[in-house]
Amino acid sequence: MEDRRPSPEAILAKIKQQEKGAGAGKLKIFLGYAAGVGKTYAMLDAAHEAKKLGVDVVIGYVEPHARPETTALLEGLEMIPTKKITYKGKIFEEFDIDAVLERQPGLVVIDELAHSNMPPMRHLKRFGDVEELLAKGIHIYTTVNIQHIESLHDLVEEITGVKVREHIPDYLIDNAAQIKLVDIEPEDLIQRLKEGKIYRAAQVEKAMEHFFRKPNLVALREIALRRTADTVYHKQSLENDSLTHNAQVEDHLLVGISSSPTNAKVIRTAARLSQALHGKFTALYVQKAGINNGSDANSERLQQHIKLTEQLGGNVVTVQEEDVAAALANYARMSGVTKLVIGRTATKAHWWRPNVKIVDRLNEFVPNLGLYIVPDQENEPMRFQGMEMQLKFDWIDLLKMAIIFGVASIIGVLFFTVGVSEANIVTIYILGVLVLAMWSTGWVVSVISSLVAVLIFNFLFTEPRFSFEAYHWDYPMTFLIMFISGLITSSLTRKVKKQAISAVRKSYRTEVLLETNRKLQHAKSLEEIITEGMTQIVKLVEKPAVFFDMADQLIMKKEYFRTNVMTDAENKAMEALFDNVNERGVATWGASNMQAAGVSTDTFPEANAYYVPVVSGGNVEGIVGIALTKEAPLPSFERHILDAIINEFSFALDKWYLQKSNEEVAREAELEQMRANFLRSISHDLRTPLTSISGNADILLSSGEQIDETQKVQLYRDMNNNAKWLVQMVENLLAVSRLDGGELSIEMQPELVEDIMQEALLHVMHNGNKHRIHCRVEPELLFAVMDARLIIQVIINIVNNALTYTPTGSEIILSAQEVGDHVRICITDNGLGISDTIKAWLFEPFMTDKIYRSDSRRGLGLGLSLCQAIVKVHGSELTVADNVPTGAIFSFMLEKGVVNVNE
Amino acid sequence: MLMNNRILVVEDDLAIGNLIKMTLSMQQYEYAIALDGKTALQKVLSMQPDVIILDLGLPDMDGVDVIYKIRSWSQTPIIVVSARGEERDKINALDAGADDYVTKPFSVDELLARIRVAFRRLASDRQSDKEQPVFVNGDLRIDYLANTVFVHDGEVHLTPIEYKLLVVLSKHVGKVLTHNYLLKEVWQHVSQSDVPSLRVFMATLRKKIEENPANPKYIQTHVRVGYRMLRHEDE
Predict the structure, then answer these.
(1) Could B199 and A755 be called an inter-chain contact, meaning their C-beta atoms sit closer than 8 Å?
(2) Would the CB atoms of A902 and B187 count as touching at under 8 Å?
(3) A752 touches chain B (CB under 8 A)
């Protein structure tokens, strides 16, 4: 089981970042070297101090069977009730994280950091609760004993002989804001024990004999003091970068990672050593071609070792190499490794290679390197375990063997009667062994088949025939050679076969990844990205999956992706599963904490699916949930690809959001440009009529008497016309602002086209000229979907233009026709028409002064460009064509309105 | 026509107030000006105007509230002055009981036309104080008892809905009726999705009673607002 906790580097970065910003919780750890040193007492004491300083302190959890002095200290502190959990008939009290999150205190006191939670709790370990609270900005006081620290626990085991089951990762200690070592002389501790202050009398005796022996306590105290000192150094180096970057003083340790069960011990030793030397350590995993996909147990153990290394603050590097010693030596030389830590029996001797210890070979490769050899005798029995697994004999293989050797014997007998030499018959049997090696699994089959081949050959073809005896003196030689060559042939074949299988799986992995990459690259929309990504995941894991669309850490939408492996009913059941409140809770937790949760993690391991957040631009955009059970989690091989796919997913989302925001910016810029152009052309267009109105009014005021009646009428008329023109201008501006307001301010409704045309004609400026205007709507009662005011504005503008630019007496026809499920609106005149050069920029707003024509003082540009914008909002385009014989036709389309007459 | 021509103008803008004053005095109407809602309400009581011209944008209170207050005791025709584009305001004002509206900027002729319509309505209201069994408007004649409609003395056959519409319009001749009002009166329920149906019936009704539907004589369309039946002098 592996969790998806971020690497220590990431956490460091996170903590550093959080320390800068307000609101990040600080962790204070009260560290002791054994039970009874007074950690809880010291912690509660500190809690009282904090309360005096005005901090909002609550007790989250304190061991219920605490000593009386400690219990007395609980007085005056608010307690958050614990959660009672019944598990296997017993009642357990657990720290209630949700109650604390709801209470939102400044500081929580939580005893026993290394505690393992009971199943319904969301985190497997109490430190999971602590990390979540810290991330939410709540400070924490907690206690822990030295033997629970990951890198130290086997050392403690060695010293005390007591097995410690509960571990906490080292980074918790290293990154804690404060470490308070609660120290007491071992003599005093033993005294306390005798006084019954630590355990009840019945247990004292036993404790004195085992754990609480003085030499033990002294050793533990030393470890605790040293670990605390290392932490002090670690903190200092964090604050002062130059210390860590001084290559000369820094030691770099290298350790080999393998799936061997004793490897963990080697890794811990390396970690301790690097802590003591204030250096860094790297764990190298040498991946061999054939062994890539060994047994599940091995690969699981390998994953655990990688996780362990990361928890201990080491860096994991994977290289592909056949020879472990050469790989270690090469890496050491290239990466400035100063010390190499290896287990005593780190490599197994091959039967074709003399038994050379890896130590000796490393010595050969890098004589200058410091070598630390860690005893790991337990390696031997494990090797047998590995062999046992391969010793499994499948009865199907026996059947295969019978078939193959039956065929071989028939051919052999046939050859024999024809008179083919014995050497050729031997070859046929070896061929049989080879075929069998390809067809079956396990090397036992190879050995047996080689033996059986020799025996059959002996029985059938050597003199005396049909007996297992052989007369000729050189037959034993033949048998031996036959046996050996059978064995070698079959073992080589098996190896080739294994490599072929691993190559196929590897290429499958690459293929899935490449395909994902390609598909995500081609995805055009957000929906497509999600569908493609999820389809690939389902294809890979062969389990149904779900995508929760998240916004503000809430589930907005669920999208289920079925798998073809399951039946419809099973798929349905699985889909229902994701609607479960608990499952959604797990997913939401994953989103708000930006961590994987559910099956095969340390958080909500009891859930029915594995949930991974998809992060883009620092926000959780969605949660991918894969239906899994605790019994059948994802194999590690597939987990890696899944990680990679989810990474691709995030990248694709990032890219999409970036593109969208770029488009937004471009659109905004375009709109801004349009506004600027409008403003420029409007201020010009306003000035002309205003000059005319104010000028005319001026003349009439100052020298009205000198002007004769006809001249006066002309001035009044000009003023009137210009004012009317300004009114239209204001209408256009209002229309622009409505277009600017977006869809909200536009009201699309089916309108009677005739009404709209009549209304528009009420507002056109006749100015006393003698144009003839007609309306033609076919068929009657034609409805079109539009924003009535905007379309009226379009018609007014176009008709006004026609009135202005066609000679008096011209005819203007407004017509509407039904065209399929659309309505075409035309405004036709029989004036002089529009020249092609003008048509080219007719609908453009005034871009620059060079297009501005001094003769068009009525700003033709603004009106028509506005019309175009309005028509585009209606999903059409305003076009202009030549009328026959002369004149222009402006036309656009509107969607036909369907009206169900309701009587 | 010139029996009692008192007009109350409620307008806070001095320039527009001046314009209206000048227009009215040239037509020899008797008028008074109120600059805010409160004075307006007092003047309605003291002056007993025949027509009220009310600007919706007043400094002290909402123009629509002024209409509600006036309507609580008086049926004096109210012409609302509002800015174009604010159909919502117009509809609210009409639903509150206003009879008609003019849109700023309005021409003097337009305003005078509206005032004439209002007086005509007043006159016809006085005539038909007692429920008349027959409604006559120009060439249009509706016999409420026989449920028949005549144009130029020729009977016009209307569908039940068309007839109901015509009756509602004729009962409020001169007044702009909003879509909502008509829907409520004819269909007994209001749903915005029925407005297109209303337009269809209105169009077919016009085809039957108007001589030139493109230039209607009896039923006027107010786009996005409603319809009105115009009062014609007996010819």
Answers:
(1) yes
(2) yes
(3) yes
Nearest to A897 among B160, B196, B207 (CB): B196
Cβ distance of A783 and B199 shorter than 8 Å: yes
Query: Is B200–A901 a contact, with Cβ atoms under 8 angstroms apart?
Result: yes
DSSP letters spanning A407-457: HHHHHHHHHHHHT--HHHHHHHHHHHHHHHHHHS-SHHHHHHHHHHHHHHH
Strands A83-87 and A78-79: unpaired
Q: Where in chain A is the domain with CATH 3.40.50.620?
A: 252-383
pLDDT for B166 equals 92
- Answer whether the bond into residue A8 is a cis peptide, omega within 30°: no
Q: Which residue of B has its CA nearest to A782?
A: B200
Q: How near does any CA of chain A get to the CA of B49, in Å?
A: 31
Closest-CA distance of chain A to residue B58, Å: 22
B197 to chain A nearest CA, in Å? 5
pTM exceeds cut of 0.80? no
pLDDT in tens, A442-486: 677 778 888 888 888 888 887 777 777 777 777 788 888 888 888
**pLDDT (tens digit per residue) in B170-181:** 888 888 999 989
Residues ≥6 apart with Cβ < 8 Å to B150: B140, B141, B142, B143, B156
**For residue A215, what are its two tokens?**
């030499």
Which ipTM did the prediction report? 0.82
Q: Report CB contact under 8 Å: B196, A731.
A: no
pLDDT exceeds 50 at position A228: yes
Beta carbons of A749 and B195 less than 8 Å apart: yes
Residue A17, exposed/middle/buried by CB under 10 A (0-12, 13-18, 19+)? Answer: exposed
Alpha helices of A610-708 — where are they, by DSSP H?
636-703
Nearest-angstrom CA–CA distance, A809 and A814: 16
pLDDT of residue A850: 40
All residue ranges of chain B with pLDDT < 70 are: 1-4, 84-86, 127-131, 233-235
How high is the pLDDT of residue B2?
47
Tokens representing A592 are 């708000």
Q: Where in chain A is the domain with CATH 3.40.50.300?
A: 8-244
Does A204 lie at the interface with B, CB-CB under 8 angstroms?
Answer: no
Contact of A763 with chain B, judged by CB distance below 8 Å, is answered with no
Q: Just give the CATH number of A708-895.
A: 3.30.565.10
Question: Can you list the domains of chain B with their CATH numbers?
Answer: 6-126 (3.40.50.2300), 134-229 (1.10.10.10)
Residue among A755, A781, A897 whose CB faces B223 most closely: A755
| Residues 6+ positions from A510 with CB-CB distance below 8 Å | none
Q: What is the DSSP track for A262-306?
A: THHHHHHHHHHHHHHTT-EEEEEEEE-TGGGG--HHHHHHHHHHH
pLDDT of residue A388: 43
The CATH topology of domain A252-383 is: Rossmann fold (3.40.50)
**A720-743 tens-digit pLDDT:** 888 888 888 888 888 877 777 766
pLDDT above 90 as % of chain A = 4
> A897 in contact with B at a CB cutoff of 8 Å?
yes
Residues of chain B neighbouring A759 (CB-CB closer than 8 A): 221, 223
Give the closest-approach CA distance of B113 to chain A in angstroms.
Answer: 15
pLDDT at A382: 40
Among the four given CATH numbers 3.30.565.10, 3.50.50.60, 3.40.50.300, 2.115.10.20, the one describing domain A8-244: 3.40.50.300
Residue of A nearest to B83 (CA): A731
Residue A380 has pLDDT above 50, yes or no: no
